[in-house]
Amino acid sequence: MTETARPATRDFTSALWIVLALLSTSLLINYVDRSSISTAAPLIRDEFALSASQLGLLFSAFSWTYAFFLVLSGWLADRYNVNWILAIGFALWSVSTLLTGFANGLLTFFLLRLFLGMGESVAYPCYSRIVVRQFPEHRRGLANSVIASGMPGGLAVGTFAGAIVMGQFGWRPFFIFLGAGTMLWLIPWFINMPRQEGLAQTSVQSSPSVAKILAQRSFWGTCAGLFALNFVLYFMINWLPLYLVSERGFAMDRVATVGFVYLIAAVLSPLFGWLSDYMIMVGVTPSKSRKSIMAGGLAIAALSLLAGVLVEKPEVALVLLLFAGVGFGLSNSQTFAISQTLAGPNASGRWTGFQNFVGNLAGILGPIIAGELIDRTGNFFWAFALTTMVGLLGVIVWVFVVGPLQQINWD
Hints:
Elements: H1 14-39, H2 41-48, H3 52-79, H4 82-100, H5 106-120, H6 123-134, H7 137-148, H8 150-169, H9 171-182, H10 186-192, H11 210-214, H12 217-246, H13 252-255, H14 259-281, H15 286-310, H16 314-332, H17 335-343, H18 348-359, H19 361-377, H20 381-401
């Protein structure tokens, strides 16, 4: 089958724009909840006398349940009402965030992060299921990137607002009001969630078995590529605030400037999602369009991190971190558009669930390894260097291991 751009079959409607806005907002909340522990890390470390290794273990706790429950969440998204699966998971992660404000030690933090990971595991499989049923191939780049912009948007809000609020009022009130306030998202979701199946599929294929999915080279390519992208992302989320305080001597209110790194990514993600769709519509193959943006962005992010730790001036380091945000914004726009094209409508939930499971092992291994490197060497250099190396390996995987971007014939 020749890889070509798909003809137009459906445009955005006001109802679909509302759905995309709500999904993007839920992902923004997701990443505010997920990343706020890192912004609070300097305060929590001092209050409970934690080492870098203990912080690394705490950072990784979220990914333990998040990664493993993604498999279950992908199956649930394909089998049951995806709207309700998303709502239940959202409620669980919001309550976990609220209770974090009452944590009294490392064990309590660890357990609440486990519950947070369970709740947030539903997000991407549900998003993927909704997008692949509502949007054709030539619209998924923009649709996915609008949703995905919530990720760096959440990191920007969590870092910028979190650093300012925690600096003024402490970390406990921030978590309590964050968890309670975000529950309000459920009201517009119940009103506007999509109630129809969406696009009629041009070809009806049976739902593939897990064995068929695991037998695809491109599946393992997207898994390894997401592992590399997440390795870079989790390093930025978990360690940049502490790095700027401990090694660059920044005050907590100045750590808020890291939020601009993610703000840039939030702006660029839908822009390059639209660009990849436009390239397909004018005749560029999905492989060339989506892979070039994905690989180029990941390379920029990885190399900018390494350059940022090597320069002496803190102001120059911050500029290079902004370039890391540029690179991540490019890559972030393509990840699940690639997977949805390969998997098709009947396998997108499980493919995304398994892919996120493997990819988020980076969230378990990365923080633990980085914490050990920081404790053993007394600085952040080798943690930055390792992150860059993994990111560059991911570039190779996205280009050469992931095959042509066309739906797999599961029959």
